[in-house]
Design a protein that fits this description.
4 helices, 87 residues, mainly alpha, two-stranded antiparallel ribbon
Length: 87
Amino acid sequence: MQDFNTTAQFFQDWEKPININGKDSCKGYYNLIVSIHELKLWQIGLRAHSNQRLFHYKDYFGIKGDCATLLQSLQDLKTKIDLAQSI
């Protein structure tokens, strides 16, 4: 897993609540899950929307690399977060 820039927007959004179907959730975690989904689509040649660019993900999460590297880093991050929350 790559080193993340901890001043990136993702880490600032981690503390921000978001209301999803009447329940509070973490905006950063929601964006992480959606980004993993969008990058999986990107890998097979589909774009979630016409303005989708890899640099948006790189800037938001503070990581570098191509699509496969970004996806692997985000999946590793999600796994670590899920393990930490289950403890």
